[in-house]
Amino acid sequence: MEQPHVIVHPLPVQGHIKPMLCLAQLLSEAGLYTTFLITHHAQKRMANFPALTTQFPNIHFEFISDGFPDDHPRDVNSGFFSDIKIKTKPHFKQFLLSLKKKSENGFSPPVTCIIADGYVVYSFEVAEELRLPTFTFVSHGACFLQAYHSIPLLIQQCHLPFRDDNINYQIQCVPGLEGLLRRKNLPPVCLLNLEADNPSFQEHLKDILGMKRSSGVIINTFNDLEVQCLPHVATHFQKFYTVGPLHAFLNSKIGNDSHLVASHASLWKAEKKCIAWLDSQPLRSVLYVSFGTLARRSISQLLEFWHGLVDSGHRFLWVVRPDVILEEEGENVIIPEQLQVGAKENGYIVDWAPQEQVLAHNAVGGFLTHCGWNSILESIIARIPMICWPHTNDQNINTDLVCKVLKIGIELEAFNRSSVKSTVETLMGSKRKALQKSVDKFANCAQDGIGHGGSSNHNLEMLVTDIKKIKTEELKVHL
Predict the structure, then answer these.
(1) Catalytic: which of 5, 9, 16, 370?
(2) pLDDT tens digits, residue range 96-150?
(3) Catalytic-residue membership of 117
(4) Mind listing the pLDDT tens digit for each residue in 290-334?
(5) Same domain for 247 and 275?
(6) Is there a single domain that holds both residue 186 and residue 323?
(7) In a domain, 413, yes or no
(8) Which of 85, 175, 337, 412 is the most buried (most CB within 10 A)?
(9) How many H-runs (helices) and E-runs (strands) does the chain carry?
(10) Domain containing 127: what range?
(11) Catalytic-role residue among 5, 9, 66, 117
(12) Is-catalytic flag, 16?
């Protein structure tokens, strides 16, 4: 019997590439022929890509054009994430057709199925056209996924569009999200407050809800983390596999070098000198600060943060990339000296840091984060409490989950220097013990889940079994 062949295809941004690469390696370890398909542009940005192919020799790395010119900014403000549906689709289809010829000539097994990022909608359209089974990968948490799939219910019950401008209004009708769903926590398309029959709204809804047609949904979470929501969101899909935290799962298979996945697959070169700086700091004395890869902040906001961090008196390691600075009216994007050198005594500022290594360092005692899903999982595994300052997408509902339900972090209520100062003092001081106890509990649950007999481990085994059950001879088109 031929070896099952799985194509793993992420959205070409850092927060989606990393977890899907971890999944690809786990599938390869389980005996599947695994192809990891990324865009040429993403591959070119990976400074350490050759090392990645050496580290994972059993993964077959392949590349396609994303359909955009080389000088396209490919950011949230450029239309990139909506335009890929049209521009990347023909290149993806051509790649699959080229694999048909390779398999016919004996160079690779026929494709068994595609595991595609839920945001690369074109992959599902092409797979349906070629009658290939698909699985959907979800890089955010189950709560945000349930929020998406509650949109038809919210329209039916007249919660959408909003009847007033109270963005903190609590919505109580969604199963599994009781106490978690405020208007501000809904997916961004809802915040546009469009009428339900608006073509743009309907198209977006069609794309997201289309994942119901896939053979199953694979999600980077674990059962104990979202216990309130998971039983409800799972009902939307044929199969539902909780397999996270994927970075820790991979670490359990290949040892303590799993952080190399992040460094080699990173679209930015990390400043390794910050680890040497951490080596010289006292135990649990440093607050790590990073707002992820997509959110943009103004210079005035960043300076308020800088003053708040310095005024707190606590040591801090802060990631500030020049390309995330938002230009304000009448303001030149010139990085102030404070953000270039930090506080001479207590601060260290870098363009990019090896986040997993930083969080695992014994000098780090807290994490001020935008509350992206990967950062939450990495913080839990490292047993580090969080300060949450959400920006967009899933980050708002993640913040309420972290602070109100899991109680492993506190929210930064405002971005002025006094609020930053007091919140840092609270996390690193008076609330430290209680938050640490909670985060330790969930870290233990996560480790149990990826261990032998754990829920994530079992679900990965079920996923592999289900893929192996797909018989290529039953497909009407062999690729």
Answers:
(1) 16
(2) 999 988 887 777 899 999 999 999 999 999 999 999 999 999 999 999 999 999 9
(3) yes
(4) 987 666 677 778 888 888 999 999 999 999 876 666 565 445 555
(5) no
(6) no
(7) yes
(8) 412
(9) 22, 15
(10) 5-253+448-474
(11) 117
(12) yes
